[in-house]
Specification:
By secondary structure, this protein is mainly β. Helix content is 0%, strand content 55%. Strands 2, 4, 5, 6, 9, 10 and 11 form a 7-stranded mixed sheet that branches. Strands 1-3-8-7 form a 4-stranded antiparallel sheet, with no helix packed on it. Strand 7 and strand 8 form a beta hairpin. The radius of gyration is 14 Å and the shape is globular. It starts with a strand and ends with a strand.
């Protein structure tokens, strides 16, 4: 079983920055470096949506709403995924979840991000 633990969430004013981390641990059949990873978020009253993904090759994708403001990265040696969020907007508020795709899908428990005007 893989455990994913997010951290780094908090409350900031619009225009501020946060950096989220997602640490993987537990039994892994395959190396963290071979997994696809992603960040999702769930805003109040809305469905969970993909924010950004990063492949095992380091290829990244971003939702249009965060392009140019968010940066996803990974440290395979530390088995950690990151999401650097700059120029935060009120609409970025939500619970941010880490996802790992090792052939099986694993979710973290989420970390709250609140952006106030």
């Amino acid at each position: 079983q893989v455990q994913l633990v997010e951290s780094g969430g908090g409350s900031v004013q619009a225009g501020g920055s946060l950096k989220l981390s997602c640490a993987a641990s537990g039994y892994t059949e395959y190396s963290f470096s071979t997994w696809g990873m992603a960040w999702y978020r769930e805003a109040p009253g809305k469905e969970r949506e993909s924010v950004s993904t990063i492949s095992k090759f380091g290829t990244t994708t971003y939702a249009d709403s965060v392009k140019g403001r968010f940066t996803i990265s990974r440290d395979n040696a530390r088995k950690t995924l990151y999401l650097e969020m700059n120029s935060l907007k009120v609409e970025d508020t939500g619970v941010y979840y880490c996802l790992a795709n090792s052939g099986r899908i694993f979710w973290g428990q989420g970390t709250q991000v609140t952006v106030s005007s």
